[in-house]
Structure formats: C-alpha cells, structure tokens
Amino acid sequence: MSLPVLKDTLYDDFMALPEHHIGEIIHNVLYSQPRPAPKHTRTSSALGYIVGGPFDGGINGPGGWWILDEPELHIENHILVPDLAGWKRERMPKLPKTVWFECIPDWVCEIFSPSTVKKDRMVKMPVYAELGVKYLWLIDPELKTLEVYQLENQRWSLMASLSEEEKISAVPFDAIEFSLGNLWG
Questions:
Q1: Is 65 exposed, middle or buried (0-12, 13-18, 19+ CB in 10 A)?
Q2: Which CATH number fits domain 38-184: 3.90.1150.10, 3.30.2290.10, 3.40.50.2030, 3.90.1570.10?
Q3: pLDDT given for residue 66 in this prediction
Q4: What's the pTM?
C-alpha cells in the first residue's frame, strides 16, 4: 500500500525497522519501540481473553465483534499499532486480506509501558479522537489502573477510573463484568 501523504523515506524507514520493534507513523513522525515486557504482554493477553471470549467468540456473551492484538492501522496519514482494538462486525463484516486495517476501530486499548506512556497519552490519544474511535481504554499494569473513555463531541469523556481488584463493567463491553485483578497476573 502506498501512503501518498507520507514522505517516501519515512515509509522506507518504517519498513526497515528490526523485526523485534513496533513502528508507528503519527503526524509524519516515526516512532519505534521494542516489543513490550512480560507484565505488559500478560495484561494485554488477559484482557484479550476476557473481552474476546464473550464479544469476539460469543462465549457467554453477545458476540458481534472482532477483537485483535496489535493490529496495524493505516488510517489517513497515520500508521498506528494499538495494543488491542475491536470492530463491531456490523461495521466491518469480514477481516481484510491485507496485513493492515484501514477501517477505524470502534474500541482501542493502550497498555502503558514506561517507554510508551507519554506517547500513548499525548500523541495517540488525540489522534484516536480525531479519527473517531468511539471508545478508548488506557491500562497501567504498574499502577494497576484502568481508565475508560468515550468519545463525545470529538472529545474524550472519562467514564470510569478503576484500580487494583475492582470489578469492571464498562462501555463498550458492559454486557460482562470482571475483576481488574485478572489483568495483573
């Protein structure tokens, strides 16, 4: 895929990143970081299982979603890689044949690492709002916190802020309830 807004050399640099790095292009800036540490990966895997079962697989839940780990999003002039993302199947009935997604997710989850927290909050969070992502979850495995946001009038509204072992039932997955303790391992 060609991204006409991106400078050719920037996209070439993106494509040349080492395999063990995650690259993103946001506002024509290339960001690169190594694969996440085990605590981060554990949190992401647990959340994918907890939410994916009922919403992607329809196991003891309503189904109707695609829930994916680290999808590469090619939207407008950005290449973004959220930790988790979800699409309602009514909006994206089938998965694309490409290795990236051009359809804006309905839900995105970013899991903080010490090296990514500033970028996730200050750079990616506003871009997700600009693109029209409806729901955003921010998780900090070190602090054991979860923030749930909903897009209202192109701005993020904080819907819930939870920590430690609290129970959560939050948009867009409020058909289930689970303990945050399940995320910390």
A1: buried
A2: 3.90.1570.10
A3: 98
A4: 0.87
